[in-house]
């Protein structure tokens, strides 16, 4: 076991880091200004400007690992990407995670990354040409419509949206919410999960279908807030699908294959969130330490009050443990595939946002009132990280996966 970084790992991490230092941190205020000016739901000039810069430097589609036994169905399909391994990308994503809007600049932001993986693995040549190509080129954005307000969607067998074949079309009916990205006018395509056969076995009822965002019958009923933040300019929508008609060729992979696709989609996506959460934790710790060392209370610098030694030390311990687990999960995905790494993916999906929430909470404390206000990014960062204990499945569901695998080791104890 060798814990040192390879030249390739250092090369890509440092290039992303240099881009962040040169173009992202210095533009945090401009980003907020552009969000605040005019309409809420829009394209931001800064983002398009920096996307072009990142692309020109080859810092593009870094999330897409070398294709492991699932080459695109269209042999002519080509996209720009250095083909980083999950392990190499993990180090880059940590850097991107320090600023909440940075991953998009490298075409590495959710939900597009998960959707692009789905289209790479499961879409046919026509679907890839229509939607994957412009997504990989950063020309359009996408959304993923699985969760529904009416049912406990952490158990996806509950999803009720209906997808019914009618001649050469499918007709889609249902209500979705938490459709991330839905406010962004660049969103042109949605991957929608719904039931094609309610009478089939539980895991064969669901399918996934491509629905253009401008399809008649698709309406955004409202945008949701997260602790009061609207997450403009992308946001999270509640979406009504009322007799939405799409060509039969929009079905992904085939009827009843929805769970198979969902598994393929969420493995990498979950670890990407974790990688960025580590970056958010690392930035919060740095800011906490700088603050504690430069303010005086009750006759000494705040860091000299011993309670802060305890908190800073615990943050460092938690971040290091979380990072090692994340890198282990990424390495296992590279060497043995996503399925073999499912316990590690579940563990890091729980560990990373929980660590971030604790570290950021203490950083907020160190900043006093400023920490919960708009003068610091910590309040927004806390709100975002807290959602990751729910998004892509709540903690309990991932703990269930981990516990099941653990119990399975001792199943002889309850055998007849
Ligand atoms: C910011 C944000 C962005 C999101 N983006 C998207 C998106 O782009 N697309 C999309 O489709 N969805 C998205 N989601 C939805 C998210 O994936 C769901 O909220 C999540 O899967 C939980 O489903 P639910 O809200 O229906 O909660 P429910 O399924 O109703 O669960 C509620 C609670 O029940 C408990 N619970 C569930 N199962 C168990 C169990 N086995 N044991 C013990 N307790 C359990 C958990 O505490 C859970 O939080 C997003 C959510 C948020 C907050």
From TrEMBL:
Family the UniProt entry places it in: Belongs to the acyl-CoA dehydrogenase family.
Cofactor(s) listed in the protein's UniProt record: FAD
Start and end residues of each Acyl-CoA dehydrogenase/oxidase C-terminal domain: 256-404
Protein name per the record: Acyl-CoA dehydrogenase family protein
Domain Acyl-CoA dehydrogenase/oxidase N-terminal: 7-139
InterPro entries: Acyl-CoA_dehydrogenase (IPR050741), Acyl-CoA_Oxase/DH_mid-dom (IPR006091), Acyl-CoA_Oxase/DH_mid-dom_sf (IPR046373), AcylCo_DH-like_C (IPR036250), AcylCo_DH/oxidase_C (IPR009075), AcylCoA_DH/ox_N (IPR013786), AcylCoA_DH/ox_N_sf (IPR037069), AcylCoA_DH/oxidase_NM_dom_sf (IPR009100)
Matching Pfam families: Acyl-CoA_dh_1, Acyl-CoA_dh_M, Acyl-CoA_dh_N
Domain of life: Bacteria
Domain Acyl-CoA oxidase/dehydrogenase middle: 144-242
Subunit structure: Homodimer.
Keywords: FAD, Flavoprotein, Oxidoreductase
């Amino acid at each position: 076991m060798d814990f040192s970084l390879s030249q390739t790992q250092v090369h890509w991490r440092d290039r992303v880091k240099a881009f962040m230092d040169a173009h992202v941190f210095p533009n945090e205020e401009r980003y907020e200004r552009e969000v605040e000016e005019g309409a809420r739901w829009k394209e931001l000039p800064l983002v398009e400007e920096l996307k072009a810069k990142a692309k020109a430097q080859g810092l593009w589609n870094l999330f897409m690992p070398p294709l492991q036994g699932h080459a695109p169905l269209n042999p002519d399909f080509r996209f720009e990407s250095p083909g980083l391994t999950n392990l190499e990308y993990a180090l880059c994503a940590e850097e991107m995670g320090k600023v909440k809007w940075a991953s998009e600049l490298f075409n590495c932001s959710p939900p597009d990354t998960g959707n692009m993986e789905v289209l790479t693995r499961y879409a046919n040549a026509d679907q890839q040409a229509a939607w994957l190509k412009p997504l990989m080129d950063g020309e359009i954005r996408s959304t993923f419509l699985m969760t529904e307000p009416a049912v406990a969607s952490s158990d996806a067998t509950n999803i009720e949206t209906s997808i019914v074949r009618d001649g050469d079309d499918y007709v889609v009916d249902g209500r979705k919410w938490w459709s991330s990205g839905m406010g962004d006018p660049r969103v042109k395509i949605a991957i929608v999960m719904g039931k094609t056969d309610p009478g089939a076995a539980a895991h064969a009822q669901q399918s996934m279908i491509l629905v253009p965002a401008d399809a008649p019958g698709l309406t955004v009923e409202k945008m949701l807030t997260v602790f009061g933040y609207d997450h403009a300019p992308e946001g999270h929508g509640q979406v009504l699908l009322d007799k939405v008609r799409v060509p039969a060729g929009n079905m992904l992979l085939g009827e009843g294959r929805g769970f198979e696709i969902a598994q393929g989609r969420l493995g990498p996506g979950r670890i990407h969130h974790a990688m960025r959460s580590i970056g958010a934790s690392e930035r919060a710790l740095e800011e906490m330490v700088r603050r504690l060392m430069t303010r005086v209370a009750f006759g000494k610098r705040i860091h000299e009050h011993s309670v802060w030694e305890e908190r800073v030390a615990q943050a460092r311990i938690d971040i290091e443990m979380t990072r090692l687990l994340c890198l282990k999960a990424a390495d296992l995905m590279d060497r043995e595939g996503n399925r073999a790494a499912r316990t590690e993916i579940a563990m890091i999906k729980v560990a990373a946002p929980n660590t971030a929430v604790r570290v950021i909470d203490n950083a907020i404390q160190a900043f006093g009132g400023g920490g919960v206000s708009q003068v610091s990014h910590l309040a927004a960062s806390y709100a975002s990280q807290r959602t990751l204990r729910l998004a892509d499945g709540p903690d309990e569901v991932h703990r269930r996966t981990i516990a099941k695998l653990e119990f399975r080791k001792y199943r002889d104890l309850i055998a007849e």
